[in-house]
Amino acid sequence: MIKPSMMKTIITGATGRMGGMLVRALHADKAALLTTATERSGHPNMGKDAGVLAGVDAAVLVSDALNHHDVDVIIDFTAPSATLEHAVFAAKHGIPMVIGTTGFTPSAFQKLRDTLQETPVVMAANYSVGVNLALNLIEQAAQILRAENYDAEIFEAHHRHKVDAPSGTALAIGQSLAKGRNVALDDVAVYAREGITGARELGSIGFSVMRAGNIVGEHHAMFISDEERLEIRHIATDRMVFAKGAVRAAHWLIDQKKGWYNMQDVLGV
Q1: Which listed residue (158, 219, 234, 244) is catalytic?
Q2: Are 246 and 100 within 8 A, CB to CB?
Q3: Which residue in 93, 159, 162, 179 is the catalytic one?
Q4: N or C: which end of the chain has fewer CB within 10 A?
């Protein structure tokens, strides 16, 4: 029996790497319920039980249709084009939306913002509590470890299947670092180095990327002077940390007014 207080949830991309984690996280949450699990039309898992695929007892069949009846929130970790389609649905029916998709172009992201301007939204590059605490620490460090004395570098590593680089989390780290130094990231970011690059430009923020094996996620922010190096590092060892954070965000979001929020808003940090 469904309790009235249970958060009724749509998971899009429910049989993907993160989708399965979200199904399991919802199943473990006694105050949440999976009501709809979707995949793109023609997906090989269409019509199968999303719970069985995720290894839990959810009894929800995978479909390609979003259902606006009896739903409190949508959790979307898919791809930019799919998220934009789901956003149109969420906006039309006034359904809050938790978004973990990364890799948007500037124009696609602006379209997403425009589509959801009247909708409560949480969007974060990373739903880990630890990562979001690290973002605060990095901003504070950047305020103190100024560019005149400390070079700043960001390193990130993910599994071989990740399609965007740098990761959304690495870019969020860059934004926090740049904010701490009161500069625009676009003005100081260096995303590639090859050949005769010349000496490092004062104040630049360098990014480096590794893709290999089944690495869940590793991020380092480094402040390096001639005398010392400070590293703020986060290593995720299980993707469930992201799924649990997204479910936590969903619970928080369903009580919010329209607006664009991030995971730090959810955590109150």
Answers
A1: 158
A2: yes
A3: 162
A4: N
HSE-up of residue 71 (Cα within 13 Å, Cβ side) = 21
**Which ranges in 74-203 belong to alpha helices (H)?**
80-93, 106-115, 129-144, 168-180, 185-188
Question: Crossing angle, helix 80-93 and helix 106-115, to 10 degrees?
Answer: 10
68 is catalytic: no
The answer to whether 212 touches 166, Cβ cutoff 8 Å, is no
* Amino acid letter for position 29: D
Domains with residue ranges and CATH for the chain: 7-123+239-267 (3.40.50.720), 129-236 (3.30.360.10)
Find the angle CA(66)-CA(216)-CA(61) to the nearest 5 degrees.
25
Token digits of residue 155: 């390193």
Average pLDDT per 10 consecutive residues for the chain, totaling 269 residues: 77 94 95 96 95 92 92 97 98 97 94 98 94 95 98 97 92 97 98 95 98 96 98 95 96 97 92
| Structure-token pair, residue 183 | 């500069």
Q: Most distant CA pair in the chain: distance in Å?
A: 67
CA distance 231 to 234: 10
